[in-house]
Amino acid sequence: MKKKLISLLMMMALVFVALSSCGNRKTSDNGSSSENSGEKVQPDDSGSASGEEVTVVKWFASRPVDGEIDLTIREIAERYSEEHEGTWKLEIETTADRPSYLQKLKTMIAGGNMPDIIDIDADPYCQELVDAGMLVDVKEYLQSEGKYDDFYPIALRYQEFTDGTLYTLPLEYHVEMIWYNKEIFEEYNLKIPSTMAEWLEICAVLKENGVTPIAVDGVDRWPVQRYLAMIPFRLTGNEYIIDLRNGEASMGDEVGLRGAAFLQEIGQYFNEGFAATDYATAQSLLLDGKAAMYYIGDWELNAMNEQYEADTIDFFYMPITDDAVTNANEFCVNSGIGMAFNTETFDEKTKDFINYVIENYGEIYAGRQQMSPIKTELPKNIEFSDLYLRIREDMQNTGENFMKPWDTYLDSDTNTIMQDNMLLLASGDMSIEEFIDIVDAALEANTK
Fold it and tell me: What would the pLDDT profile of 194-221 be if each residue is shown by its tens digit?
């Protein structure tokens, strides 16, 4: 009996050691590991050239793999690692699909496994993390490092909460516009609209002549939501959506009512089956000459450039209303999903790397024919397209106001309900009154 007891105790000790050695470990690409993100690890043969410990920082990203941001950050991280003789390494784990990313991020954080760097919008969930003291104050960091003014003002303002606080760092900078087929416009003697009323008149002429006026990606929802937000932005800037989010306005107020009515009216000019049309298909409808217009941002510049240079397509910005309080040079300008930092692991080494990113990112990212949120001179060895230079100049001449996407203001539950039902509103399968009631009920249920 005594021997059995000793054997049992030895087995338990072995199991404990095994569990201790593998619990909470994070393995890097070269096989090195650390118990927590941002900690030091002893390198193997493929580690640092100096034989020193390697600091591994983990970035959980929600951006396209091999996209321009991904490639730029990887290039900068590789340079930084080489300059530090391999003693520093950035590990990037990517989930590009946003809903899947957010679900995984929330699970990781709830389980006490928050990465060193995350991608997140300045939305209600981000605010929860801020209130819990989990995110670095980016405004304070940038100002203390003397780098706040390195960014374009709107790129940073887009990342702010409504109280002016800033906890996310922009890596992109975009403007959104309506692309149109010049040949179709010329065939029907159509001029670029300056008002919403003129835009609807153009759509009516096109539909009467059997032409699909507007191609829309309904699968991703957000392009349709942009149309819902247009009239409220023209009438109040972002004030209405902020009040709606805070429970201080109703979807049935005059501003919301006009926004819903506009979506329903312009929705009759969307391509047939738009709710089931994906991003690539919607874009192809414009480029293949099967639709006259398509709303998308400058991130599709490379896809548009060939036909732009061939004088087949062009673009115009969001028209105004007769009673607009925002100007013609004010529309949807954004800096996309931001990069946020874990307060527990944002040490001097991580800060030094982020400083290095800010100092080098603009030129490299712009060199990929992308609009940088960081002020930079364009590289002299790159030949930039006329389209790129035109949009860049437009972005440097936008007004103070910018339309911020509604999905960054609303909580996820309310936003999902709004996005699902706005498709029915735009297709004519739901009345404006029904839409208002559904959205207001969701707001009441989810407003804290």
Answer: 999 999 999 999 999 999 999 999 999 9
